[in-house]
Amino acid sequence: MLSPVGWEPTQGKTPRFFAIEPSGTFLYAANQNSDTIVTFRIDQAAGKLIPTGHVVKTGSPVCIMFR
Question: Are 11 and 33 in contact (CB under 8 A)?
């Protein structure tokens, strides 16, 4: 069963989508009105999000897909 362990700002305006990559190591947050995708590392023991400082500028992201 899932339960909340905390809150982490998406470091952008109007978060629209988030995705956990297939290995479960990173979460990506797409911020529509700041035109960014921000990367967070997932602390595997505690489940908390740790900002990596990696920000991708892109035009109004609406979804994230992995190949």
Answer: no
